């Protein structure tokens, strides 16, 4: 279902996405897919050795990936122009991540919508914040 | 410790052939069920030529080609003390199975910053400009790595 430029307003929330609880197996699958084999994400003994008392932590790019899922559930990939995140905190297996976002700017020239997004866990701890810009279609085109 | 004299340096290009299976593998790992990334017919119905690469796909050539490690080690960054601070993508054209991407990594800046706890950090920014086999600019990836001192 297409979302049109005319229908989007500053302050509007994008549909939220809830994912989890994250399982360690997902870290292994993500490591293989992405090519990020840092044992910090897959080997509890290694993670404890480098100071993570609870063991492995989730890949930051996995969190960016689920933010990307939330975005392209709402905006088609082809209309996404720019997408960036800042990693704010570590995610651990067992966390449930909720992605939310809201429209912060609407630029008539080019039909550009700017949104801020964030991913937080079940306690409200923010794992990543970000922003994306997307070009929205007009209703009559 | 990050060597500021390397700022501006470009590194040898990396070449990555985009495979349908790798696009599927990444969305499977993320748990994104959107059929546009896995089902060609669904993608074509949405106006794509084929299944497009998902928003964070460009992490794959960067990681599998060891781009970050190559740049960080050349710039004398202590890789045992790094954190991934930020990641940003600019999408300039759609990326499809069969595309051959050439990425040119560049060390764009090294800045010193003090953390809230008073610890010195180096903020190291690396960009990779990707061009496809048609010579079109495909995307730009920007990675901020934080080196704790």
Morphology of chain B: elongated
Number of helices of chain B: 4
Counted beta strands of chain A:
5
Number of helices of chain A: 3
> Helix amount of chain B, in percent?
10-25%
- Give the averaged pLDDT of chain A, no decimals: 95
Distance between the termini of chain A: 15 Å
The Cα radius of gyration of chain A reads 17 Å
Task: Please report the distance between the alpha carbons of the first and last residues of chain B.
Answer: 7 Å
Strand order of the largest sheet of chain A: 1-3-4-5-2
Order of helices and strands of chain A: EHHHEEEE
Global outline of chain A? elongated
Describe the structure.
- The complex is a heterodimer of chains A (141) and B (149).
- The longest helix of chain A is centred in the middle third of the chain and has 15 residues.
- Chain A is elongated and about 60 Å long.
- Chain A starts with 16 loop residues before the first strand and ends in a 6-residue tail after the last strand.
- Chain A is of the alpha+beta class and 141 residues long.
- In chain A, a hairpin with a 5-residue loop joins β4 and β5.
- The model of chain A has no long low-confidence stretch (mean pLDDT 95).
- Chain B is of the alpha+beta class.
- Chain B contains 4 helices and 5 strands.
- The interface between A and B is medium-sized, with 31 and 34 residues.
- β2 of chain A pairs antiparallel with β2 of chain B.
